[in-house]
Design a protein that fits this description.
Mean pLDDT: 83
Order of helices and strands: EEHEEEEEHEH
Strand order of the largest sheet: 7-6-2-1-8
Helix content: 25-40%
Distance between the termini: 40 Å
Low-confidence stretches: 102-116
Radius of gyration: 14 Å
Number of domains: 1
């Protein structure tokens, strides 16, 4: 979805870490494919998302927002801070990340089962 912080328009989505994930921006899928996003504690209730940024690794907790800044860099924001800082300009993007994240998770699970 498009959001505004001051006079700057950015893109953002809320990461739930589960099957209830609704927003699916293409830029998030691309970041996952390029290795700019990875998982910690994958396939567990303690799953976290890791953003690999120029400033280091940022851990994203379930329910946090992921913001795509003007330069393409990814950042995270807690729900409370997001509500204070950003104004929603468009509805959520339900493009492709849900299916992609699920396929990757299921694919990895299948590969792990075959290996074990």
């Amino acid at each position: 979805m498009k959001v505004r912080q001051g006079g700057t328009v950015l893109e953002a989505f809320r990461w739930t870490g589960g099957r209830d994930q609704e927003e699916e921006p293409d830029w998030a899928v691309e970041a996952l494919r390029r290795g700019r996003v990875s998982f910690e504690n994958e396939l567990t209730q303690q799953v976290k998302l890791r953003l690999h940024t120029s400033r280091g690794v940022v851990i994203v907790n379930r329910g946090d927002w992921i913001i795509r800044e003007q330069d393409g860099e990814l950042a995270s924001c807690s729900p409370a801070a997001f509500q204070e800082r950003y104004e929603q300009l468009s509805p959520p993007d339900t493009g492709g990340v849900l299916g992609t994240l699920r396929r990757i998770t299921v694919g990895r699970r299948a590969v792990r089962k075959r290996i074990n």
